[in-house]
Structure formats: structure tokens, C-alpha cells
Design brief:
By secondary structure, this protein is mostly helical. The chain has one domain. The chain is globular, with a radius of gyration of 16 Å.
Length: about 200
């Protein structure tokens, strides 16, 4: 059950910390450290793991997934530990917004898939695992990362509702909507049959 007793000061603190955590562009940092160049000049120009993979460096892409998901996990778990479930959901949403609209990159960030899955795992592990498996199975079948993300995000609220109906569905629906908005160009390319396959180098 959500705790509605969280103070306004705590809400501001949680939201600010989570947003700044989410704003860290790990994909760009990892690419620079590993000498892969500026992600803005590679492939789609996105800062996420799919674009990192277009450099041909699978380790860098894997690390980007881990760190992007991890910042969502850390934000949610810390907020939940100190302030409870309501704060955890607030932290998840603002970490997600931080990744999509990071202050360090003039609010032009990633598409949020890895951090979304990390947040979901932290909110409800089994629902998060179901969403991760949805992404994986879809990716294996159709080999298109963006389509896999769209399917996984669309089903994520369903998994959460089936596993834990008490809370979180609306919060996840908001993130799902934002993922679809951020993928609007991908959706156009999917419909045209021109969306790149997983692993295609930029």
C-alpha cells in the first residue's frame, strides 16, 4: 500500500536525487573511456546500449545496459529504504525522466529502455523479470531492438497488474507512454521495414 505521509521536503529530495542519478549518460562515458568515440556521431546518435553496440564493442554495450539499469535500481531501492514505496515510485519516475531529459546534455537523452527495466526490477522483481524476458524473446524472434522495447514496455503494466495489483501500474503506464513517444521515429521505420537489426554497425 502506498504511504501518503511522505513530506513535501522528502519528495523534492527524492525527486532531485533520482533525476540527477538518471541524468548520468553512462553510454557516452563508457564509449569515451573505451575509446569508441562520441556516440552523438555514431549510428542514431542515441546514448543508449543499442547505439553503443553499433560501434561493434559488445562489452561496452553490455556495460551500458548494466549501468543504465543500475541507476534506476539504485534510485528506487534507496528511496524505498529511507522513505517507503511512494518515494520509490517517485524516484523511479524521476530517474527515468533524468535519462530521457538529462540536464548535462541539454535535455536530449536516451530512450529509456534499460533504465525502465531496471526500475521495474527494483519495484517488483518478478514483473521486471517478465518484462526482461519479453524483450529477450521478442529480440530473438525479430532481431529489432526498438520493437522488442516497445513490446516489453507495453506488456510491463500487464505483468505488474497480474503479479501485484496493489500499486505501481499507473506509474509504469506513464513510463510506457514516454518510451513510445521517444520511439516515434523507430515506429515509422518499423512500419516501413527500414529499422536496423540488432548489432548493425553505424
Amino acid at each position: 500500500m502506498l504511504n501518503l505521509d511522505i513530506t513535501p521536503t522528502a519528495i523534492i529530495a527524492v525527486a532531485s536525487f533520482a533525476y540527477l542519478m538518471g541524468s548520468i549518460p553512462f553510454g557516452m562515458v563508457i564509449a569515451k573511456v573505451m575509446g569508441l568515440g562520441n556516440l552523438r556521431d555514431i549510428g542514431s546518435g542515441n546514448i543508449g546500449a543499442t547505439n553503443v553496440l553499433r560501434t561493434g564493442n559488445k562489452l561496452a554495450a553490455f556495460l551500458t545496459v548494466v549501468f543504465d539499469a543500475g541507476k534506476g535500481v539504485v534510485a528506487v531501492l534507496l528511496a524505498n529504504y529511507f522513505f517507503g514505496e511512494t518515494a520509490a515510485q517517485i524516484a523511479g519516475l524521476f530517474a527515468f525522466l533524468g535519462h530521457l531529459y538529462p540536464i548535462w546534455l541539454k535535455f536530449k537523452g536516451g530512450k529509456g529502455v534499460a533504465v525502465f527495466l531496471g526500475i521495474l526490477l527494483a519495484i517488483n522483481f518478478w514483473a521486471g523479470l517478465a518484462a526482461c524476458l519479453t524483450w529477450l524473446v521478442t529480440a530473438i524472434i525479430i532481431r529489432i531492438s526498438s520493437a522488442s522495447a516497445l513490446v516489453a514496455s507495453l506488456l510491463a503494466p500487464v505483468w505488474l497488474y497480474l503479479i501485484d495489483t496493489k500499486s505501481g501500474v499507473l506509474f509504469v503506464l506513464i513510463m510506457t507512454l514516454l518510451i513510445w513517444v521517444k520511439h516515434k521515429e523507430n515506429i515509422k521505420r518499423i512500419l516501413k521495414g527500414t529499422e536496423p537489426k540488432i548489432g548493425k554497425r553505424g
